[in-house]
């Protein structure tokens, strides 16, 4: 009974952590704040995401070194064809347009696509692990699929975080060129939110391993099996005493009795 409760607790905790990880990773992927750069000469704050970018322009000076935001974020998709044409035209006039250098960071590069691929694939695998985990109490072999799919989701999420971290620290991605100055991009909160989701999946995978072990420990035996055997023996014992039936395994072909796993009981008779 205790083993069954532990299995259910570990399985429930693992599924909860999977859902938490899915919420965090999806929230991070939908946020444009993976990289932030404040271009002071343009009085604009640029947010560079994986599949869309946002700009907060017209930042007015209140005091020296102090700004306040007057306009909301204006966003565009990286895969928008019209935006791609604008970026191409801006880059063609790089000698005349001082913002042309910053336009490079609004393009949909291959590393953006790779990160999105691993994020989407990890979400699919995480959902598959939840479906198989729910079926584990009814069909124990699904715990293997549960653990394997969760492991693959965790690996894909780690790869996505690793690709972004390496790409964001490259010189051509880390620094933004303005008209008169160069500005350094900093990693935004969206990356850390996604990283927390990855860590939640790591914890869920540890619980999944323990769950699989509990389901298959001792070659599939459990405390419930021993309790059922003991109950059957208690029901069988009065019958054996009344009819003087030996409680051992019987006579086999080699001429000796097979030892019984239960203690022997004998009928009491009067002399």
TrEMBL record:
The keyword Mitochondrion does not apply. Keywords: Membrane, Transmembrane, Transmembrane helix. Residues 242-271 are annotated as: Disordered. Residues 244-257 have a biased composition (Polar residues). It comes from the Eukaryota. One of its GO terms (cellular component) is membrane. The chain crosses the membrane at residues 9-30, 114-136, 143-167, 187-210. Pfam families: Clc-like (PF07062). The keyword Membrane applies. Gene3D superfamilies: 1.20.140.150. This is Clc-like protein.
